[in-house]
Amino acid sequence: MLRHPDFYPGSRAVAGEPDVRWFSAAGVGLSDAEWTCPSTRTLQALFDGGDTDDESVLLVLHGALDAASVTLPPSPDGGGWSVVWDSAQPPPPPEGQFVADGGTFAADGPSMLVLTPSRG
What is d(CA 12, CA 114) in angstroms, rounded to the nearest whole number? Predict the structure, then answer.
């Protein structure tokens, strides 16, 4: 999903949502004010693989020096998220690190996390 051959057009995926959606640290869509606010230091990008054979991916980008509470948006499958990679932690990520839909966790700063829909 992250090596998509084409630019994401923002088109609608199977569920009627755009193929790329942007969320705040609160797990809700970014408002115009949040996009332009200099104090916004955390955002999430959901790349929805619903129209392709690719798996959906959620990137959490946290640019502040301090840790922040981050609420994840719902996964496309509705089953929560599995952490695949966390730049603030030594590899590999803890086995089975799971965050429920709407679940909150502390993102160390600065860091980037890669999550995929949970397989159960």
Answer: 22
